[in-house]
Amino acid sequence: MGLFRRRSPMLPITSLDEYDAVVTDPEKPVLIDFYATWCAPCRQMNGLVKELHRELDGRAVITTVDIDANEDIAKRMGIRSVPTILVYRDGKPRGRFHGLVDKRTLLNALRVEA
Predict the structure, then answer these.
(1) Which of 22, 53, 91, 113 has the greatest number of C-beta atoms within 10 Å?
(2) What is the pLDDT of residues 65-93, one digit of tens each?
């Protein structure tokens, strides 16, 4: 692999089956950022979500759901405003955050050190 480790890309969730597969991972905590492309606070949170993905480097699953492109997922999860972040550990919901959230709060919910 050479001198550099390749980081896995932060892939968005695009189906209910993908969503179910991701949140039931017992190995790692999961953070899912529900956003909309037209939402200014969502764009702010996107930078933090990408930063967490880079810093946690595989110790947690960090992903996103575009609520406009995936209305079925947003509806099932009861997403009424964005940004909304859901955190899962051991396949169970462990946190739900609305609006702008700071990094420390998300790390505490994930129980992972950056």
Answers:
(1) 53
(2) 999 999 999 999 999 999 999 999 988 99
Catalytic residues: 39, 42
> Which residues contact residue 66 at a Cβ distance below 8 angstroms, ignoring those fewer than 6 apart?
12, 35, 36, 37
pLDDT per residue as tens digits for the range 40-67: 999 999 999 999 999 998 899 999 999 9
Question: Left (φ > 0), alpha (ψ -120 to 50) or beta: where does 51 sit?
Answer: alpha
- Encoding tokens for residue 50? 């990408």
Task: Return the structure tokens found at 110.
Answer: 């994930």
The size of the chain, in residues, is 114
- In angstroms, the CA 60 to CA 110 distance is 8
8 Å CB contact between 84 and 98: yes
CA gap 84, 7 in Å, rounded: 25
Helix (H) or strand (E) holding 93: strand 92-98
